[in-house]
Design a protein that fits this description.
Elements (H helix, E strand, L loop, with lengths): L1 E5 L4 H11 L5 E6 L9 E3 L2 H7 L4 E4 L5 H11 L3 E4 L6 H14 L3 E3 L8 H13 L2 E8 L9 H9 L7 E5 L5 E8 L4 E8 L6 H10 L6 E3 L2
Parallel strand pairs: 1-2, 1-4, 2-3, 4-5, 5-6, 6-11, 7-8
Antiparallel strand pairs: 7-9, 9-10
Bound molecules: NADP nicotinamide-adenine-dinucleotide phosphate.
């Protein structure tokens, strides 16, 4: 499978490049970066020049919103499957991406958290909320994270019908991504905490997406 990574110099992009490069079933044929680099593969400044020169099955994007939008849309228009983990998408972006994926018959998976956003955890949180309806969300990330609140916090806020003023963002050094969902009633509370200790935590979800997205019926836009 021929893969291009958009954001290949970033913390996630570089981690993923190292990981996928050691797996024989994937071939990272190129990367997209604003920097000129020597990574042993072709690096393109933008998706347009990449599409002109490479045959690609799937674009994996961990970059920066809104810059990622054009890259994602161009990939879909050119019949390339898309996996995007970049956070900060708006609802209307999802509608446009959905339209393009259907029109060009390609798969697309956008998830704010490839380690945490899954059916089991969603069902667990909905189940706890049925007993303890007062919910607050705390998200902790590294000081370098640019968007706030996190895409994961916004995703769970939407899922659990939590008002924006009940999401709390903390930016501190030494943290990758932690989320705490507090559930309470008048007499008791439960806190569900999810902490990322290593970016390896995202890999299972991303590998699953790499397989799923090759089915053009797969349109999972979790914004
Ligand atoms: N879905 C998930 O599971 C998951 C997990 C971790 C992170 N994320 C998200 O993935 C994205 C990337 O995270 P990261 O930690 O890898 O970030 P990062 O280290 O800041 O890397 C982002 C990369 O995006 C590129 N970029 C393109 N346009 C940019 C712009 N205008 N400003 C800044 N960077 C730009 C940069 O590459 P060049 O300078 O080479 O162009 C940069 O290296 C974020 O949105 C983050 O929230 C999602």
């Amino acid at each position: 499978m021929k893969i291009v990574i958009n954001g290949i110099t970033g913390r996630m992009g570089a981690f993923l490049f190292d990981y996928l490069s050691n797996r024989p079933e994937y071939k990272v044929v190129a990367g997209i970066s604003r920097q000129s680099l020597d990574l042993g593969i072709n690096i393109y400044y933008d998706i347009k020049s990449c599409l002109e020169n490479e045959e690609i099955d799937t674009l994996i994007d961990f970059s920066f919103y809104p810059n990622c939008l054009d890259t994602v849309k161009q990939a879909l228009i050119n019949n390339v499957n898309v996996i995007s983990g970049t956070t900060g998408y708006k609802k209307y972006d999802g509608q446009q991406i959905n339209y393009l994926a259907k029109k060009h018959q390609v798969g697309v998976i956008i998830s704010p958290n490839f380690s945490m956003v899954n059916k089991e955890i969603e069902e667990l949180t909905i189940g706890i909320k049925n007993y303890l309806p007062y919910v607050e969300i705390i998200e902790e990330h590294n000081i370098h994270k640019k968007d706030k609140p996190s895409g994961t916090a916004k995703y769970f806020a939407k899922l659990l019908d939590v008002e924006p003023d009940k999401i709390h963002s903390i930016r501190i050094p030494g943290v990758i991504a932690n989320h705490h969902i507090l559930f309470a009633d008048l007499n008791q509370s439960i806190t569900l905490s999810h902490k990322i200790h290593d970016r390896q935590a995202f890999i299972n979800g991303i590998e699953h997406a790499i397989i799923e997205v090759t089915n053009y019926n797969t349109i999972q836009i979790m914004i």
